[in-house]
Amino acid sequence: MSLTLRLMGAMMRLTVRPMMRRATDPQKMRHHFERAARRWFRPVPHMHAIPCQFPAPGSDLHAVRDALWVGAGPVMSDQVLLYLHGGGYIAGSPKTHQAMVARISRMTGLRAFVPDYRLAPEHPLPAALQDARAAHAHLLQRGYRPDQIILGGDSAGGGLALALLAELCQNSQPPAAAFALSPFCDLAFTGASVQGNGRRDHFFPGDRGPYLAQMILGDLAPDDPRASPLYANFPDCPPVLIQVSDAEILYDDARRMADKLHDAGAEVILQIWQDAPHVWQIFDGWFPEARAALRDVARFLQRFT
């Protein structure tokens, strides 16, 4: 482990973790996340983030959702990354994650479509999944075949990507591959690491899980596959890469999700990093473990590009 990671990890435990324990207002959490992204998430050379819109789900033919086309340097025209940002389903946006996504684009040549899906508690689940599904349909309408699309996401976005993956597999529209960074896969919070890493996690106290679930679940049961892909089915699943830290409360989400996909017959690569913070990849440019993890993502994706 690098000295930089140790120092930044200690700082996170002293500053971010107490804030997350007290946080109750989603609007303030969104504001803090957006401000932190501008300060800490470093831009990528030749990065571009182009605003766009796509048709929103539902019966209103004129309703649209916002999104960003994100890339860095030359990008391919015949393949695309559908990336779903994290933020616990209550915060985050394409802008908070555009730097990390641009780094993946620079490493792979993939252009990324990053939808601004609806957030809870104003729009509880399955609103986010409905928007992710609509974003995928939009890419199909633009001429991409299902096997020209790669799914990716982090944290809640990682769980969302896996929930969408399950639906696509069940509908015979599997993507070329998928990856999930520290995915949030079980809103029932049954993983042993929720309590076992409750004091070790850099960001999240384990006992805050039920409060978060109450905000984001709406009328869904915690084990509904649309909210918790750990309980979904994945027929004919494509290869999946999962990265997680052994210090996270979501460590068992990732481990059990890998087992679930493996039992479904999928090729699964589970990479476990030591004592890294939740979604450490987003700190690319600050400590070497972030860049190393993104290189592993890029190597995985290059098999399908």
How do the SSEs run, as a string of H and E?
HHEEEHEHEHEHHEHEH
Low-confidence stretches: none
Q: List how many beta strands DSSP finds.
A: 8
Mean pLDDT: 95
Shape: globular
Strand order of the largest sheet: 1-2-4-3-5-6-7-8
Share of residues in helices: 25-40%
Q: Helix count, per DSSP?
A: 9
Radius of gyration: 18 Å
The structure class reads: alpha/beta
Oligomer: single chain
How many domains would you count in the coordinates?
Answer: 1
- The CA-CA distance between the termini, in Å, is 31 Å
Strand content: 15-25%
Q: Do you know the CATH architecture?
A: 3-Layer(aba) Sandwich
CATH fold name? Rossmann fold
Assigned CATH class: Alpha Beta
The main β sheet shows up as: 8 strands, mixed
The CATH H-level superfamily is: Alpha/Beta hydrolase fold, catalytic domain
EC number: 3.1.1.83
Domain Alpha/beta hydrolase fold-3: 81-281
GO molecular function: hydrolase activity
Family: Belongs to the 'GDXG' lipolytic enzyme family.
Can you walk me through this structure?
The structure is a single chain. This protein is of the alpha/beta class. The chain has a single domain, classed as Rossmann fold. Helix content is 39%, strand content 17%. It has helices at 3-22, 26-40, 94-108, 127-141, 156-170, 193-196, 209-216, 251-263, 288-302; strands at 47-55, 64-72, 80-84, 111-115, 149-154, 177-181, 240-245, 268-273. It has an eight-stranded mixed sheet with strand order 1-2-4-3-5-6-7-8, sandwiched between helices. Helix 5 links the parallel strand 5 (149-154) and strand 6. Helix 3 (94-108) crosses helix 9 and helix 4 (127-141) crosses helix 5. It starts with a helix and ends with a helix.
